[in-house]
Amino acid sequence: xxxxxxxxxxGAHPLILKKLExxxxxQTAGYGTDPFCAGARERIKEACEGADVEVxxxxxxxxxxxxxxxxxxxxxxxxxxxxTGHVNVHETGAIEAVGxxxxxxxxEDGKITAAQVRQAYEAHWNxxxxxxxxxxxxxxxxxxxxxxxxxxxxxxxxxxxVCQELGLALFLDGARMGYGLxxxxxxxxxxxxxxxxxxxxxGGTKVGALFGEAVVICNPAxxxxxxYLIKQKGGMLAKxxxxxxxxxxxxxxxxxxEISRHADELAMRLREAFLKKGYKLRYDSYTNxxxxxxxxxxxxxxKEKYSFEFWEKADDSHSAVRFCxxxxxxxxxxxELIHDIELL
Length: 344
Fold this sequence. Notes:
Layout: E1 2-3, H1 14-22, H2 35-47, E2 54-58, H3 61-72, E3 77-82, H4 86-89, H5 94-97, E4 102-105, H6 114-125, E5 135-142, H7 153-166, E6 169-173, H8 177-181, H9 190-196, E7 199-203, E8 213-217, H10 226-232, H11 241-250, H12 255-277, E9 280-281, E10 289-290, E11 292-295, H13 296-303, E12 306-307, E13 309-313, E14 318-324, H14 331-343
Parallel strand pairs: 1-12, 3-4, 3-5, 5-6, 6-7
Antiparallel strand pairs: 2-8, 7-8, 9-11, 10-14, 11-14, 13-14
């Protein structure tokens, strides 16, 4: 079986495994206070183009989202997010479990707009019963989104401006950040993002690491005591060096960008093959996730040899499915899939 259902199916980049082995018997302080974490923080700060940021390392995306969101919101507040957002659909109510409601906004492509945020904010405060309703306190977006789509610089600037005006924190989930940064349609850098959001994270789990996410806090108001909150939420890894070593390796000599570009280039080959075959695409994605709408009979034939994810029914005889490339996807596997698509 050749697997395309997600981008965390492999272990870790060989350079990370090599570095972990080389440093295995070194003794360091725990809980992220070691030299490897310090080095990784400096490399990420450099990648943020001089922004005054604070960097912390956590283990996984859900843990990161609930820790960041609960660190900012007051008990009576909720977080605005696309209805398709990860915190709303794929985290088993983790945000609600820490006492905050996800306030879902309609979305066709995984993105929300500054106008929607303003409308939701004003609808709350114009309601005569607003003290009986969860108050919007934060906006959550993803780059890329769950549907592989991207926010452009102008869109993120508009979101930044409305959040600043309304006093809402802006949090960007970057679980697949590398695949967004290296997409051919992307016009944002890490420096741009650091200047436009209050906090974001750089995903490692899905982009070459064994595990790990790097939280980048940009707004000074949210830096104080964040380590206390990591510990309280069970996210302070005793062997924090394991995270530092991985991110230090990923951000040495452009490795993070190189392996992300690899996945995107292979995904673009799949995109071209789907379009050439005459399949429509459910979302206009230029990242590592592709969503062709295929006849169910064709899907069944491909399932004999490949694993990929069902997304949604399009009509009685067609479905949208997701094919996902990764930093480790082999070009030969994509060649084989394209050949079999042509034969359908």
